[in-house]
Amino acid sequence: MKFVTYNYKNSEAVGILTEDEKAVVPAKSLGFRAESMNEFIDELGGRLPELPAEPETLSLAEVKLEAPIPVPRQDVICLGLNYRDHAEEATKADAVFDVQRGDAVYFAKRLQRAVAPNDSIDGHFDICDSLDYEVELAVIIGRDARNVKAGDAGDYIFGYTILNDVSARNLQTRHKQWYFGKSLDDFTPMGPCIATAGSIGSRPELGIRCYVNGELRQNSNTRMMIFDIPYIIEELSAGMTLKAGTVIATGTPSGVALGMSPETQKYLESGDVIRCEIDEIGVLENTVK
């Protein structure tokens, strides 16, 4: 099952994609009261809705898909260097990425509003001269999680979406931390949906790819993560409550512009089209303006 946030006649709502993914079933037509995905997650309380044989639907052509959680309740939690090949390429590029690999690297990504599928990304080229892309699998927490053991982590996962961790590398390296360079407005495209965890599991093995202007830049599988999702949930929830609706971006594989040799580096420019794909979830495409 896949959930979406959509705009219909200038009104934002939550819905469920039909099996053929050509239409959306409004959640309110099923009796739900939620006005947002955060409220919908709360209202579901860990269960999945049941669809009638002939539900009320809106064609996808009639609606505009928004980011599935346009405004998360808190900053996105991110993992840095969680694919070994990306850790190696990043460390070679700049010493600020040279960290001990014994423990996971966590940081926060602030966002005003997540960028919707097919919407544009402000490159902030007045202050950014090295705009980069990072396709990531994002996990959505389904109910408040505190002191959760890895073996039980699957019970707390609502689903998964695609997140592009857009990064201003010059700001990231200049300030010797990642928060500012990854938190500019428009730096968090997300979507196109949330695929529920039931069919994917708590340790996803999904193909993950990123194209820029049709050129394949990143191509890996989520099984290559150093720290898997149950480990992440157990470690984080041991010291903080992960509220329902929390978004955790699990890192990116190699192939980012930062990791290329200086002679071949291809940072993003105005007009570039970034296409992020993760199997079983879908496609997130955006254009830099």
- Which descriptor suits the 3D outline? globular
CATH class of the largest domain: Alpha Beta
Counted up, domains total: 2
CATH topology of the largest domain: Fumarylacetoacetate hydrolase, domain 2
Runs in which pLDDT lies below 50 for 5 or more consecutive residues are none
Structural class: mainly beta
Radius of gyration: 18 Å
* CATH architecture descriptor text of the largest domain: Alpha-Beta Complex
Fraction of residues in β-strands: 25-35%
Helix-strand topology string: EEEHEEEHEEEEEEHEEEHEEE
Give a quick account of the main beta sheet: strands, pairing sense, barrel closure: 11 strands, mixed
Q: How many β-strand runs? A: 18
Helix percentage range: 10-25%
Please identify which CATH superfamily of the largest domain we are dealing with. Fumarylacetoacetase-like, C-terminal domain
Integer average pLDDT: 95
Distance between the termini: 33 Å
* Count of individual helical segments: 4
Please tell me about this protein's structure:
11% of the residues lie in helices and 31% in strands. With 289 residues, the chain is mainly beta. The chain has 2 domains: 2-65, no CATH class; 76-288, Fumarylacetoacetase-like, C-terminal domain (Fumarylacetoacetate hydrolase, domain 2, Alpha-Beta Complex). The strands form 3 sheets. Strands 1, 2, 3, 4, 5, 6, 7, 10, 11, 13 and 16 form an 11-stranded mixed sheet that branches. The protein is globular and about 60 Å long. The mean pLDDT is 95.
